[in-house]
Fold:
Amino acid sequence: MADLTREYLTSAFASTSLFEAKTWQLSPEAWPLTRAEVTELEEIGTACGQFHLALENLYLRSAAGKNLLRNKPLVTPWVVDYLDRGKPQYLIEHARHARQKGIMPTVLRPDLLVTDDGFAMSELDSVPGGIGLTAFLNRLYEGEGNVLGAGDQMVEAFYQSLANLRPESRNPLIALVVSEEAATYRPEMRWLAEELQQKGRRVFCIKPDEIFPLSSSLCFDLEGNPEKIEIVYRFFELFDLENIPSAKYIFEAWEAGEVIITPPMRPFQEEKLSLALFHHHLLADYWQEALPGKVLKRLQKLIPKSWVIDPVPLPPGSVLDGPLVGGRGLADWRALGEASKKERELILKISGFHESAWGARSVVYGADCSKEEWQAGLAIALKDAPENFHLLQEYRKPKRLKHPLYPAVRGEPGSDDPASPAIKQGRLRLCPYYFVRDGEVSLAGALATFCPPDKKIIHGMQDAALLPCRIID
Structure:
């Protein structure tokens, strides 16, 4: 194993199309995690799986008008109204289909901020990018020893989570379908497919317009011959269905039982506002009954206080379930626009089923913008509410950490040798990847995003370092 010099890393990234048009800061070391932290991540994965099952039960019972509790009445038609708002009827019916019951996404990835009080989960993604990127980094850094998901572990876990959906097929044909909206992730999906093909697995990365129907089956052309697709790994958001030319055929093949689609096309599983439902005071008894005690406590600590921006008029004298402004409850969300900078330690973002709902596109951090910008973001949230709700979430500030980085530019001040790393301060987002198989949620790797300390919203920007994780004693 070569030393992880700047030159070695640069050459490794340049030699594969996986990182086409992507740049970030480089480090000679994977991000260190203690064994206790890895154990906590495993427990978080279990909690995320339990949360998904409880969310499904909440949604389906609310839609059916059934009582949620064992010993007292709780009927919540407003929950299904929140989760179905703005969705086409055909997609709502598909999500509630009896064959979908108990079907979870095969990949779960929470976004965890590392704070002074432990992890804080800002999102729970079921259509995450970065699987190929993290698997590549795991392999690249495995010479350090104890890399989480080292070698082919993550690639294999991804495959098994998919192939397990067709236990009757020894080698199912799996299509990783990547839309044009998500095209920047196509290189890593193509890399995953090629890695699995080298192992003899029938996995192919294709575009939606390469799919065509043959009788009731779903097919694509492979070396001049139509090949039947058994499993579709959907790497596109559900708001994008109208732009998928083969969407009609995908639904028809699923209805005929000819193809399995994962993650399932169930929009309620992809709404960020589900985190606000977890904190909703009217649902406290439900979550207490639906979740094991240890899982409930884990999620209560993990998920920041969150609210749905719903501009429905209130009766006189009523106040919203929301943050305080000037020490008083809100009677109208517009009053939140007058919050002081200290009171604006809040994140505002669209919940889902919208082109701006991924990649931090709609995120507004109240304490990091002007009052006018905050009011403008709030006005958009209130205007969008008839079709797309926005989520308001307490901001938990990531703590300052240190890690060695190579200078962004050779000769950058702070390093005696322009090719040598220097210890830098920054803030961290950790994205563990969990793969679901037979209802079991397993940790297979984690991507650490180490950002400069002045960055308040952490994502995969070019001045951040993207790192795998290794376990230390």
Summary: Confidence is low (pLDDT under 50) at residues 410-416. Residues 75 and 333 are 26 Å apart (CA to CA).
